[in-house]
UniProtKB/TrEMBL annotation:
Catalytic activity of the protein: UDP-alpha-D-glucose = UDP-alpha-D-galactose
Domain of life assignment: Bacteria
The NAD-dependent epimerase/dehydratase domain, residue ranges: 3-252
Keywords recorded for this protein, A-Z: Carbohydrate metabolism, Isomerase, NAD
EC number(s) recorded for this UniProt protein: 5.1.3.2
GO term, biological process aspect, one: galactose catabolic process via UDP-galactose, Leloir pathway
Keyword Cell membrane applies: no
Taxonomic path: Bacteria, Pseudomonadati, Pseudomonadota, Alphaproteobacteria, Hyphomicrobiales
Entries under InterPro entries matching the protein: Epimerase_deHydtase (IPR001509), NAD(P)-bd_dom_sf (IPR036291), UDP_G4E (IPR005886)
Source organism of the structure: Faunimonas pinastri
The protein's name: UDP-glucose 4-epimerase
Names of required cofactors: NAD(+)
GO molecular function: UDP-glucose 4-epimerase activity
CDD domains with a match to the protein in the record: UDP_G4E_1_SDR_e (cd05247)
Annotated family: Belongs to the NAD(P)-dependent epimerase/dehydratase family.
Amino acid sequence: MTVLVTGGAGYIGSHAVLALIEAGRQVVVLDDLSTGSRDLVPRGATLVEGDVGDEALVGKLIREQGIDAILHFAGSIVVPDSVADPLFYYLNNTVKSRSLIAAAVAGGVKHFIFSSTAAVYGEPEASPVDETTRPGPISPYGSSKLMTEMMLSDTAFAHDFRFVALRYFNVAGADPLGRTGQTSPRATHLIKVALQAVRGERTHLEIYGTDYPTPDGTCLRDYIHVSDLADAHVLALAHLERGGESQVLNCGYGQGYSVLDVVAAVKRVAGVDFRVDHAPRRAGDPANLITRSEKIRAVLGWEPRHADLDVIVGHALAWEDSFNAREKTRAVG
Ligand code: UFG
């Protein structure tokens, strides 16, 4: 059983590779290293540097490496970038996914797990959402991912091919054993930004909007530990292998935390205070984006192991500390 993991040198993909290897799978990573890093590819996986949109390359890998399932993480994920350059997002996330799916069908790969996003819900009318909530993306990023879900669904109807699309909510944290984590210095996500403030890499954190219709006026999100998300991928693959139907599943704990809750957790866990300013709302932020988690638990038997905000923050902090220490050693060396 060899699994092809696109984007396996990235943040979420590398955690999934660890989980697959722990589950006894052979793993081939396909990554162009545009945002991922060779250093993040877990030991035991084979790295192939290349483009997921290269149908000939993927076809060759399927044949020569005996690939029988694909986990597709590769893609672009920065919402404002997608607004500024939509065609790049449709190329990278939609067109290249089409090529990958075509190569899978041509090569007889029947099982496909896709990294989708809560961004497909846009600004939902009610929260929590579930998989019956009508998608309504409000960014090219969300649309580019939803279009891929649609291609998968139509392909599964026409061919001997099944898929699971996992719609990620707010992914954070790092491997509890410190083997991989988030490295992108450009990360805009709340916990990453807060950790930069802890480490003095930025002077302060800005809270984007304190007048939302939520208990403390700041946005509510469903933060999920990246290792729990990685486990969901391994379970989703097992689901398809035992003949399970194609599924769209939301990945979150069903528990909301506000921006103020997260800031308080980071200060508490790090034991460091930092300046926090109130800033205007950021365009496109829904007030409340939380999912019900019943479906993924029922379909996959998924039991999260790290559903605790302080644990998520603690693992992210430990990774930042060890990563920065390594970078420093490298610079000195
Ligand atoms: N926030 C701040 N200050 C910051 C950074 C974030 O106040 O410096 C706030 C945001 O306004 C938001 C919350 O913290 O209310 C979480 O923001 P993130 O940027 O961490 O995450 P998002 O909820 O914007 O992003 C998530 C996923 C995306 C997905 C998007 C869809 O990470 O992949 O939801 O809404 F596209």
